[in-house]
Prior knowledge:
Elements: H1 5-8, H2 10-14, H3 24-35, E1 41-44, E2 51-61, H4 67-74, H5 78-93, H6 96-100, E3 104-113, H7 122-139, E4 161-166, H8 169-177, E5 181-187, E6 192-193, E7 196-197, E8 208-215
Parallel strand pairs: 3-4
Antiparallel strand pairs: 1-2, 2-3, 4-8, 5-8, 6-7
Amino acid sequence: MQDSFYVNENVCIALGLPDQPESFGEMDLLLKWAAKDGISIAAIDKETGKVVGASFNKLEESKPPEFYSKYIKSCKHSAAKNVAKWMVDMGKVLDIFEYCKVQSGVEIMFVGILPEYRKRGIAKKLFEVSIDVAKSLNQGKEDVRISIDGGALEIAQPPKIVTAICTSFVTQKIAKDLKFKRAGEFSFNQFVYDGVTLESRVPSDTESITYEYVRL
């Protein structure tokens, strides 16, 4: 993710994350928090055994987790802190659980592919496998989760939806191809951090942020 998502994802770019590599360690804490749910997916090159991409997925419920406020307070670097603030703000502009009238879901939170492995359909496959995992949990037939630390995995409610906040035309196309529905579309310029809008630094190939979902 340090060689892909942190330096290439549009919101990360807009918030200056590539310019603060010292903040990558703090961003890694967000990944580890998501990975603890045991439903994140890695893409591995069969010939080399190299991890070339990953989707960090999070089980979520309608009540916002306390993790974000604690994380934001603990951050020493502005870029990592503002990424977390933006994630919280997205939940404020659109409550996806209220919109879909459900109490639980799986969020495809962070997807990154190494640059040299792009345009091979890996990101789309990560979305597809993430949905398959969510369906397994929804149906309760098989617990496909894998603990990253050997600890017990809990689940209060089976997920009813899969969500993704898409910040690039690539992920927006994947969502469309996989029959996601669009709950909302938002301009980059409505998000301001440290006096600067996201729009001012986002590459011009993406016009807006979309909040997508698919029911299980």
